[in-house]
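Hello,

Our lab assistant flagged a job as stuck in the queue for most of the afternoon. It eventually completed. Since we weren't sure the result was trustworthy after the delay, we are filing this so someone can double-check. Below is the sequence as submitted and the structure that was eventually returned. Let us know if re-running is recommended.
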Amino acid sequence: MRPETWEKNRTKKEFEELLLEVRRVTRVTTWWRRLSFRATVLVGNKKWKIGIGLSKGNDVTSAVKKAANEAYKNMFIVPITKSDTVPYPISLNYKACFIKLLPASAGTGLKAGSSVRSVLELAGYSNVLSKIVGSNNKLNNALATIRALTKYKHADHFNALHDKKIVEDKKDTNVEGDDKNKAKEVVAIQKPEVKDKEKIAPVIENKAKEVIKKPIKKVVSKATKAKK
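-- returned structure --
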């Protein structure tokens, strides 16, 4: 036995395969109808890895083998918390189906149906609340759940965001300090000195006295003049 084949067998033993659906498909041509089988296979190791494969074949066995090989090629890593649930609620539309996944506390179990349950089990989740609306197609439901799981942000993303925020806050504090110093300088320039105030104030007082001394003219309307 070659070492390459031994490594492939060893990696495949870690994963569990699940035949989700087998359908008979007909391809219509001008002269005849060609029959074939379409198989969908789920592959997962119950430790953050899940894959789905879809392929056709003349026999069921060949279709299943092809689908399994495709599933091993299309592997996704999904995030799982310490309580074996999703990190935060998420909802997604895929074709005719709408799926919603919610985190649950330890001991709740998998509240899911259809192909969503099998996908979550193979991925390694044990406490999840879910809801599917709009479609009963197993393939579409499985693809929708895998897409929703792959849209989750991992812990590294949030750590990077947190570090970036801290750096930005530090920069903002420095800028604010510089702005405050500049503002103080501008206010100091705009404010007149005390000597200037002493010169300006008496001039304004004299003008006010002149206005008060002037006699106020009485305004008499034309109607009152006519009466007189």
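-- support follow-up --
The delay was a queue issue, not a problem with the job. The result is valid. Confidence is low (pLDDT under 50) at residues 185-192, 194-205. The chain is about 50% helix and 25% strand.
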